[in-house]
Amino acid sequence: MEFDPALKYRGLPSVALVGRPNVGKSTLFNRLLRRRRAITDPTPGVTRDPVEGQAFIGGKPVRLIDTGGFKLDRDGSGPGGLDSLVVERTLEIIKTADLIVLVLEAGELTPEDEEFITLLRPRWPSLIAAVNKTEGGRREAEAWNAMSFGFEELILVSAEHGDRIADLEAAIVSRLDFSAVEPGEDDENRPIALALLGKPNTGKSTLSNRLTASAASIVSETPGTTRDVVEGEFRYKNRRFRVLDTAGIRRKAKVTENVEYYSVNRAIKTLDEADIVFLLIDAREGLTEQDKKIAALACERGRGIILVLNKWDAMPRIKNVLAAEKDRIHFFFGQMDYAPIVPLSAKDGTGVDDMLETALRVYGQLRRRTDTAALNQALAKWLEEYPPPQGPRKRFKVKYAVQVSDNPVKFVFFVSRPGAVSDAYKTYLCNRIRKDLGYSMIPLEAEIRPSRREREQR
To answer: Engineering a disulfide at 103: which of 19, 140, 363, 382 sits with its beta carbon 3.0 to 4.6 angstroms away?
Structure first.
């Protein structure tokens, strides 16, 4: 079977890149994926959550997984310590991967390498050892010392420079079974993509784990635990959903580390992949200026937005508290009054069904198409009820309108004298589209263009 790199596939064999911190796993992951997906930085321990993607290796698709580094000396080494959680997650990935690529660094092997190799012995038949940072033959003689651990084969590579990556790819492909691989769904049946965005410590990873019924995202009280985008899937009412758990987004002035800068940028880039944004807001804190900025970024891209008031279980149990909170949000954030507001406790699951039902309704509106005839019939009514201004400088005529795209939803109005159309009148047209045509819960764009006669006169 020939595979098309432009398609998504299911039933992929999984390949996990493992090793101690700073041996170049994330650089190798990006090299094999042929794009920058994992964050790379000289700081040890940058990767925490497993990061995965579909990679084409030797012309065949695989599920490639980058894991956190194995450490002996762990900060907060108790069961809930962050380093311990990272190592625990890595060991879980090792148990289920079809193939393990152990990444070592050329030079003297460390106690962490030796301890990790011992742990990997039960998976020996499914392991490939790769020694990284050997560009141009650098430290090759020392690299071969790793053979003393009994590896059947040792592949010397440079993830940064690409040396002998083809040899590693050939070794990976030769050890995998591709018989279960099938083409994925077309665009109509693809999963609905949900991006979890918000400030740090609002419960994004807790919600991601609850939705996917997994522990894919590490949950810790430590702010900034999530760095890379962590993906997962689940089903609800026979619909597939894809979850993108992202790093918390703080104000730019507070971002001082390179790693956090890249994490925030990666979080914002998920807006290009998402259908709907769950903007998580700490219900105890309420809507903040930073939340408004995140919502504006989603709105600019035409993404569906649901304001999720998480940690609702911590709110006082008094009458009308939800109505009061909704009123407060709408007062301070009037331009987003179309966005649904859902109370939730990601911790105990209260409100999850309501949130997903809302997401299905929002997605239905994002994919809605209005026939041109029906649109212009409605337009005639809107113009009759609120005619354009008649002053000599403000006068214009709306000729007709069309919907040019869904998800994001965009309409184009063809008018005489486009420069005379005020923002207020454009807002009026958008509001009527939302009210009369079934787009009440989503952002939409209305573009004003010159009519054909206007263009010809130019």
So the answer is: 19
